[in-house]
Amino acid sequence: MRALVTGARGGIGAAFCSLLRERGALIELDLPDFDVRSADAWAALQAPPLDVAVHCAGVSHAGRLDGLTPDALRDTVEVNLLGPMLGAQALAMNPGARVVFVGSMLGGHGVPGGGAYSASKAGLRAFAEAFQLENPQLEVVHLQPGVVETPMAGDLPGPRLDPTEVARVGLNAKGLHVPIGGDAKAFLWLARWLPALLRRRLKTD
């Protein structure tokens, strides 16, 4: 099995690599100087056809919009969204191969101080859908975890998910959008149905 993982130096990416080693992966790639935002870097990679590709590299610049620099906004969108798009475009995949996009529960709903991150992950969600439709021969999985025990989580409240559990779900899940963790499932359910319920309540009051 040939596999490529971006963002593999820690957190969820490192957990993917550990599980892939256990499954006999022949390739695990996360070059220290590899820039997922660079089309030239992807073109120069020249990876062989893969059985697994995990797009896990991500950044978070938390803060209100008026406190974020243009560079921070650009970095968020380019790493979290442009990077996976360029990677998906550049990588050759074997028929039946698995492509995992690591999103977030915040990709379905914006929160104060997380607008840039939420927007980038919402874009990734939509891209994963389009990529699946364009490539029905592949198994495409878009993960939507809650708060994961990684440095990026910072001091966010609530229970933390084990990165290994997130990776295990990513390698085994069937279907496209996969929420992970009770808090993620509840959050996504509320984000989907609460606006409609409120509109219905307002009409009946």
Task: Describe the structure in your own words.
It contains 6 helices and 5 strands. It has helices at 11-22, 39-45, 70-90, 115-134, 163-172, 182-204, and strands at residues 3-5, 50-55, 93-102, 139-145, 177-180. The chain starts with a strand and ends with a helix. The relative contact order is 0.15. Residues 201-205 have low confidence and may be disordered.
Largest sheet: 5 strands, parallel
CATH C-level label: Alpha Beta
Succession of helices and strands: EHHEHEHEHEH
Q: What is the number of helical segments per DSSP (H or I, 4+ residues)?
A: 6
**Number of structural units classed as domains:** 1
The amount of beta strand, in percent, is 5-15%
Give a short overview.
With 205 residues, the chain is α/β, with parallel strands linked by helices.
Fold topology:
Layout: E1 3-5, H1 11-22, H2 39-45, E2 50-55, H3 70-90, E3 93-102, H4 115-134, E4 139-145, H5 163-172, E5 177-180, H6 182-204
Parallel strand pairs: 1-2, 2-3, 3-4, 4-5
What key phrases describe this protein's structure?
globular, 45% helix, 205 residues, disordered C terminus, 5-stranded parallel sheet
